[in-house]
Description:
Blueprint: H1 2-5, H2 8-31, H3 37-62, H4 65-93, H5 102-120, H6 122-125, E1 129-134, E2 140-145, H7 147-173, H8 179-186, H9 190-200, H10 210-224, H11 226-238, E3 242-245, E4 251-254, H12 256-261, H13 273-276, H14 278-284, E5 290-293, E6 300-311, E7 314-323, H15 325-355, E8 358-363, E9 368-371, H16 376-379, H17 383-386, H18 398-412, E10 417-425, E11 431-442, E12 456-465, H19 467-504, H20 507-535, E13 544-547, H21 548-562, E14 567-571, E15 577-580, H22 584-598, E16 604-611, E17 615-622, H23 629-637, H24 642-647, H25 650-660, E18 664-670, E19 673-681
Parallel strand pairs: 14-16
Antiparallel strand pairs: 1-2, 3-4, 3-7, 5-6, 6-7, 8-9, 8-12, 10-11, 11-12, 13-15, 16-17, 17-19, 18-19
Amino acid sequence: MAGVLTTPAGIAYISLFFISGIICFAAIPRARMISDADIRRGLVGMLVATGIWGIFKTGYFLVPDPLKEPAYIIGLVFGFGTVWAWLYFASAYSGRQLHQNSSIRLLSTGVFLTVVTVKVTNPLHGLYFTISEATTPFRYLAINHGIVHWIATGFSYVLAAVGLFMIFEVYVKSEYDSRLLAGMTGLLGLPVIFDLIAITTPTLIEFIYAPVGVAGFAVGAVFLFGDRLLAVGAASQAGNLTLIVDDDGRIKDYSAAMVDSFPDLGGSVGESLEDVFPELRAAQNGTKNVVTQNNGTQPSHYLVSSQSMGVGGSETDVLTLNDISERERQRQQLLKRERELDQRNELYRAILAASFSFVFRIDIEMRFNYVSESAESFVGYEPEELTGEHISVLAADDESLTTAVERLDEVTNGQTAQIRDHPIVTQSGRTTYIDMRLVPIYDPSVSRDKRTADDVTEVQVMVQDASQRRKREGLISVLNRVLRHNVRNELTVINGRAELLANELDGGAKSSAETIVQAGERLSDIAESARQIEENREVSPELQAVDIIPTVSDTIERLEQRHPGVGVTTELPDTAVAETLPRIGTAMWELLENVAEHTGSDPVVKITVIKRNDSVVLTIADEGPGIPKEEEEVLVKGKEQPLVHGQGLGLYLAYWIVVTVGADIEVSGSESGTTIQIHLPTPTDSS
Length: 687
């Protein structure tokens, strides 16, 4: 021991291994501050193992001779452990998962324990090394390594080379300037040169110099270039578009692909990211996570992610940009589509709100799938209370339930249906009446031209409160009964008495009595028209295929009998089937009677029927003075005026019947006559 400390060479060797161990221990606190857990474990493990190895190598020169062999063996065990810690670090740093693979970890543990067993049992077999006294370059007990040692050492060097390959692969693929990092990492291989020299020449003692290389790597990795080392590793795993930013927000480096996509970054190392690329700086700060670049006809969109890497409290951010242009364009299209759908839904909701009191959707099992919020104020149930319930919860009685089920069955077979004056029971037990329009809802995945009844998934029921209409129609019925019975009976008395007076009186008195008779007859006609309006008040009746030619012929015959002075000409086909109701004859009669009574002393009327592809056109043309504007508005718009009502309700009755059977009416008038056309739709299944 005295010989070692008394020579410069001995002091140099002791100092070399002691300082190497101390450097490794000194680096541990900073290494423990690395944010990535796996990289931290691997690097700290390597520093701990190497530090202990260096200290025991130092101790080998200083402890008494009997303790030298145990000290060297303990150092060998930790030295071999350094190799596995290095592999763990290299796997984690390069983004591989080898260190997490349970099979590899189990195999590694077995190999480690096998080699350690051989090392520890060396005093028994002496195959690993022997000790002999040497005097060059100073007096000490030299280690003579055996064949087993060189096998284990060669194996260790192979494992270390695998780790170096993983690390250098990261440097090469990162596209960053990693020359300093490569040189720093290369220090790990420097001791191999010393080992080879020691084998071939006595200038250096044969003592394994690996702790020196690890110490050099520790200084660079932890104290000098730690931030850059971690940043390059993170960037290589992140992708091609990466940029490294320091604590102060300054650009430290960037990949070549980054400059290709963002040319303004060229030559910006050391500059503030805020000044060079403010949008990316905002993404780094979390203000937004997408940046846009307009280099071509379409903008490119990039999703920005930030990963903080650091050693010893110093943080470096690695910003990674992933091209999401196609996904962003799809997202924009979806947003546009959603806005359009929202607008349509709002329009749909507004139309429904204006046209109906509330809306149901009922599935094929007769259960409520959807209930609009407006239903609560009408039926008393909250939408959630009705959803999932059978429609019988609102049924007033068995008869109304049967009617609803029958109509729903029709709609699930692809038809539409209407129900008027349908009774339902509210949550409070009150019976009220509704009008319903029922339409099928099909599976949206089936195209319109391929839909069948099997594709109906729901029925949409649009509901209108019928209470006010029922009250209004009840009042109309009462008034009509008064007109039909009370007024008509009284008019019969008045007309009878007036006719008696006209027969008994002469002169002015006789003329007055006849005027009373005429007025009474006009009032009777008005009462009769009101009765027919009341009978035909149904707004949306079920239409049927009707051959209108017999109806037209009967109406003409009636006109000729009642008004024989009217000249009638016709152009009629043998048949003309329209989708209408027989009541259309009443409308035609009112129009013809208006011609007979208001077109002069010798009225002439021409009646034609023309069949078209989608309609049957009934035309009534006269040669009178032309229809007054007020009467035209009654026929075209149903506009009511006191003057027109004073003349009668015939034209209004004609208008009402035409519109309630789904027909259209056109009126054209001039000084030479009036033409009225009624366009009746043809049945959808007619040829």
